[in-house]
Hints:
The complex is a heterodimer of chains A (about 200) and B (about 190).
Chain A: H1 6-13, H2 19-31, H3 33-51, H4 61-71, H5 80-90, H6 92-118, H7 123-129, H8 137-145, H9 151-161, H10 168-197
Chain B: H1 12-20, H2 24-46, H3 49-66, H4 76-95, H5 113-131, H6 135-146, H7 151-158, H8 162-179, H9 181-186
Helix pairs in contact in B: 1-2, 2-3, 2-4, 2-6, 3-4, 4-7, 6-8, 7-8
Amino acid sequence: MNQHVTPWLGAYHDGELKGLRLRQVEAHLDRCAVCRAELEKLCALTMLLQESPAAETLTPPERFIAQVGLRLPRRPERTAWQRTLETGWRLIPVGLLGAWAFIQAVFFVSGVVLDALRMGLGGDVVAELLPPSGGSWLMQFSSLSGAGLNDVGRIMLRMLSNGGPVGWGVTLNVVSLVVIGLLYWSWLVSWWARRQHHNGNGKAI
Amino acid sequence: MSVKSAPSAKTELELITQAQQGDRQALGELVRRHREGVINVVYRMCGDASLAEDAAQEAFIRAWQHLPSYRPRSPFRNWVYRIASNVALDALRRERETVDIDTLPLSTSDEGPEAAVEGIERGERVRQAVLTLPPASRAVLVLREYEGLSYREIADTLSIPIGTVMSRLNYARNRLRETLAPYLEVV
């Protein structure tokens, strides 16, 4: 004798089984009197439950509707400005994505242009305007002024003028990504909070 | 001359959209359509007809308040049933001791006196047995047995997984089969 299909009888009775499981249960029921008896009890229970009378409504429908209408609180109407604000708020993720794409494009294009200019594609005049590859404008300024800097100061100044240990480009890129990420997560948290607040009843049973 | 369509001719989605924009008549039509189901859900949950009507009104008022955030991904009926279930549970918590079966009015019947009394008594015992179930299982049983919702709809309505729907339903049915064993033998 196969294992009984008792755990699935409820779902079978409710018409919720499909495919292979349905065929298995049907095949089992054909040859198992115990499970057939169980199924009959389930059917009997459903019939018994249906016998229990529905609520006798004391209030006629029209009066019920009127009573609901009288108890309805005023819902503050939203102005055009509030609706615009709401739409703008919903578009924040799109805006952040656009900002991220724009920043990436700017860094990419500026990198390509700078490399091209350094290779001399812009001519001598443009090459003179570019920052020197080995040093920096700040270092040149400090040497011109004649102010003596110790070694630590020089290293710090060099790092500062280069935009940190990894350079201005990467630093700005990382900072902008972090800012965009923080803004997005803040939006996500506020969206979740609003959703919880407006969830109709706020809790599951 | 423009002819405004009667509320009954409008689709539920149209009514919902209008009610979301503050149209109270549209809500009235939605109430008309779902009143009976909502009252029954609350009644089966708490077992008191007058309390059920009051709680059903409360459910529709909550629905009105939260309607702007309703998205018609799931049927309106399921959404409002969910609110009704929670309102019923809140009412039960407030009342604590909700049902004294002996004080409930007995409905009349066209059957013979003995059969009628027997039927009424059986109905009351069934209702009492349902009320002894834990609220979570009771809600699943009510939505399945009395409102005919599918497992998926119950899961969406109560925000629980389908597996939980099945286990709660099995639990409720097993409990009822034990409690109502004498009546099941003669059905």
